[in-house]
Amino acid sequence: MFLEPESGLAWYDARRKILELVVGVQSPYEAAESVAYLLGNAQAAFKPAHINSNFAYCGGGFGGRDHTPFPLYVALAAMFFPNRPVRVANNRYEQFQSGIKRHAFKISTRIGVDRATGKMIGFAADHALDGGGLANYSATVASVSANAALGIYYVPKVDVTTYAFHSRGVTAGSMRCYGTVQTMTALEVLVDEICTALPLDPIEFRRRNALATGGRTMAGNPYIVSVRTPEILDKLEQHPIWKERAEQKVRGQQAGILVGTGIACATKDYGTGGDGTLASVELTPDGRITIHCDYVEMGTGIGTAVANRVAAHLGSVADEIAVAQVDTFGPLALVTSGDSYTMKQKTQDAAARNPRWVPAISTASTASIGAHVGTHAAAEAARIIFRFGLWPAALELWGIAPNDPKASEWKTARWKDGQLVMPGLAPLALPAVAAKAHARNGVTGAMAHAFNRWAWSQATFVVAGQAWTADIDALAVRRGARKYVRIDRSNVKFPPTDFNRIGQSYTSGCGHVMRIEIDRATGALRIAKAYSVLECGQALVPEVVLGQAQGGFAMAVGYTLLETLPLYEDGPGNGKWNLGQYLVVRGSDLPLNGLEVEVLPPVDPDERPKGMAEVVMVAVVPALLNAIYDATGHRFQSLPVTQAMLKGALK
Length: 651
Fold this sequence. Notes:
Layout: E1 7-13, E2 18-23, H1 28-40, E3 50-55, H2 70-80, E4 86-89, H3 92-98, E5 104-114, E6 119-132, H4 138-147, E7 158-166, H5 180-197, H6 202-209, H7 229-238, H8 240-243, H9 245-255, E8 257-269, E9 275-283, E10 289-293, H10 302-314, E11 320-322, H11 345-351, H12 370-374, H13 376-398, E12 414-416, E13 419-421, E14 428-429, H14 430-439, E15 443-452, E16 458-463, E17 466-470, E18 474-479, E19 485-487, E20 489-493, E21 507-519, E22 525-535, H15 542-561, E23 595-600, H16 615-618, H17 620-632, H18 643-649
């Protein structure tokens, strides 16, 4: 649940037939299209000639603002009350009543293990998801949760059945972790149960069964990014919380309290299999940088992330950044058709003959793909500005002729403290190079679109007479201070539609170990110490990575110990629910000074950023449940595990 209830402002000028909107959503492009579709065939009195949609920063998202109908309500209110300002805002009761909820799961899982080798030989699971009254994104949550059911492991024989069903319950949708926190919690708790029964060391068992780099997931495809499970398991094994678990249990017995230690390890995909992204980057003669992108700021630091990624190519962070943009990319003249998730290869091939066509123009922003998708188009645009604007300008300033062998060594150039550095040459300050690029009418602005379906689209463009192939499918460039000019692509390669059939190819990992203390008399649980170790490729904003890990930990604790929501008549649909009934985690429930977060460095300097905002929550839930078992000897089969339940189990 996000902190800020949904709200919006609107004004319909009936004389000029202009509708002005201000809303906060995760899907600006979708919201703008939806409002246009809603009013496009309305009666004359309710049909605006122009809709100006403005998208504000969100006070949190967690998937709840992903595909929300709220902007439609705001637009309708303005049309029925023309020529006056309209504000529509949920109070907390209304947000509980109408907002999207996390899916309730019923899960049954079996794992077969060869006792002699300690290797998993078979895995079977059944998942039932209550989607409530409206479909929303139940089908994709069911699919993602099923693909995640095997977590970090490789098992040769797998049988998973998952289905989402309609009920009279509250509508469920694409909340943080997208079904994976449910299925991987069941998995990691069962793995811990196996280790107790055999018995086997919990970390060694995970190590023996972990999917190796290049190994195939249960959907039959390999990950195309680094898989660092062995490093994460090594870190967990070496941490004092794990190494000191036996002596801490003895200490607890002497003090009259129950002490338990639990671990878990998780992997989580990032990307949706149909991600479209837009960005433009511009450079002034004095070296000032402006970035426009379609991604939304909702506490994820996307503005800083995109600025840092562009700075790697242009030598300085941006002076101006505009996010949640949908109408500033006109020069690309993009069109789309069909559903990028379900279209056939023949349909895609035919559509791609139109050089303006892309499978999806702009898609929803989420915390787990902001660094991966939301910064990509801007990084590619910045790379083009460097190669065809700044680099030729630098060569001229250095007095290097275009036919000199050094002229082709642009990949070896580096920025250091705002200066372009090459061995044996004088450093050049960005303003000087930018001024020369403008004077030469070099490329000083680039606008790009990219699409990802478990791989990036790719195309070739002729820039300054040279063929340039990049992970984008649309490009417009600006020379000097001129207007943008679209460049037609050739040899476009969109990821095959079959990639929708196979599993995800991007993943990041996280492991967690924690020690808890439980009061025998009251069942009160205290988290004494906790340690998370994660990997996310190149961390664009390390402070935000740390904040996401801390926030994911807090959210997981609340999910495990406190949060419960009846689905039917006595639930939030009755309009009587607030934070008095729905208990969320507070500072007193958390180890404020006892949580340690370690972020592994990238495997190499060029490793791209990976999504991590969800995986940091997933591993915490089963680690906490495994610690509860270690302390009490009781396994709980449903969530939340409340203080009353703990007290009852200890009688």
